[in-house]
């Protein structure tokens, strides 16, 4: 009898608990297709978001201003948090909100080495600390590397069309500059390092695509069957043996290297872990920076009236530093800085920013209960188009972030800064640590390009390429070429 009573009490508690959770969940406003009862329509809802996610996020943001709402993304249900709650969540610790958990889940990280790379978060420290602090000494090296890579690319441009593929140009310059800054000039150019960097992302993405639809527990079982030709291990072994000796040298007491490899080698990590950290950060830096740069070049072709002024600013800044590329030159490029920020605001590669997983239950100030395990995000692109944050938000204004005297409106309104309404670098505790480097890199590449060339879309093209929507994100057009006209 006692057992039955105990059982009944437990059952009742369970049902009440479920009802409580359900009643809290049902308060969430839904935008887009619902997965339906028992998740029967999940597949259709995911597909819908994959194709129309960006529009759905904008719609939800406009309709439910100041409220949280839930969408079924192509990956999972995500609670979109209204901007007014950002202040409450931005600094919450890992024990409450985790970005790493989102990345691990999205990337099936344990199958592509992400779990080892992210353990201890040294990869973030390396970028936030040594990379940002050393920008002053790095800019001349970045310029040398730019000239080397762009010189080769420009020499390949066909004389009859003078056209260059924008993705190839941006990818190659960002990859060579970033590899050089991370592992040093000699290593970045020897022994096939560029191939390792180039191969990792498509192979990792391929693994992710194959394994993601499977439940986590089943992935190790299905993996050997689905990924018979798993090339990842070969790439990682190459990266590891490539870096083994340089890591050993950097661990010698009198070593003078100052690159990111040196910083990571100073910790007692295995060469495999360091290789994964380096390849992982370069891959992340490459995708984000390449896409932002491509879009900035497209915006320059759409608004060519800015080119002469950006060029004049760069000439003047260079002249003030004796014609040498220094960090001081980079810091003087205010118009280009504002132009890049405006380009990223209007392009916003990711529809959902500040993606986090609740590692414990949270209750927001309006009473919204966020159960442990919930994915949350902010509708970054929609927020960047909100007139509450930006005047005439749909209009491209390359001088939006400048005062009348051409100086930045404020430090937070510089390209690397984060003003209210801006989620492109994330927010709070986990803000992109690479944004100072990304800003310097982007300015150096664009200023150099327009100093040497006039740029335009091929004859007859009057509009910028649309890009491809993908799960709330926008991938810029990879096939677009521009015409380079060398300046006299
Ligand atoms: C225009 C270029 C870039 C954009 C738009 C960008 C954007 C972002 C965003 C939105 C986040 C997530 C922040 C959050 O959720 O609060 C992030 C994280 C990060 N970014 Fe960037 N980023 C860029 C370039 C770079 C570069 C060049 C580097 C390295 C040199 C870098 C390194 C990182 C790292 C290490 C993280 C942390 C990832 C983690 O949590 O494990 N980023 N970035």
UniProtKB/TrEMBL annotation:
<keyword id="KW-0479">Metal-binding</keyword>
<feature type="binding site" description="axial binding residue">
    <location>
        <position position="432"/>
    </location>
    <ligand>
        <name>heme</name>
    </ligand>
</feature>
<dbReference type="InterPro" id="IPR001128">
    <property type="entry name" value="Cyt_P450"/>
</dbReference>
<keyword id="KW-0560">Oxidoreductase</keyword>
<comment type="similarity">
    <text>Belongs to the cytochrome P450 family.</text>
</comment>
<keyword id="KW-0408">Iron</keyword>
<keyword id="KW-0503">Monooxygenase</keyword>
<dbReference type="GO" id="GO:0016705">
    <property type="term" value="F:oxidoreductase activity, acting on paired donors, with incorporation or reduction of molecular oxygen"/>
</dbReference>
<dbReference type="GO" id="GO:0005506">
    <property type="term" value="F:iron ion binding"/>
</dbReference>
<dbReference type="InterPro" id="IPR036396">
    <property type="entry name" value="Cyt_P450_sf"/>
</dbReference>
<dbReference type="GO" id="GO:0020037">
    <property type="term" value="F:heme binding"/>
</dbReference>
<protein>
    <submittedName>
        <fullName>Cytochrome P450</fullName>
    </submittedName>
</protein>
<dbReference type="InterPro" id="IPR002403">
    <property type="entry name" value="Cyt_P450_E_grp-IV"/>
</dbReference>
<dbReference type="GO" id="GO:0004497">
    <property type="term" value="F:monooxygenase activity"/>
</dbReference>
<keyword id="KW-0349">Heme</keyword>
<dbReference type="Pfam" id="PF00067">
    <property type="entry name" value="p450"/>
</dbReference>
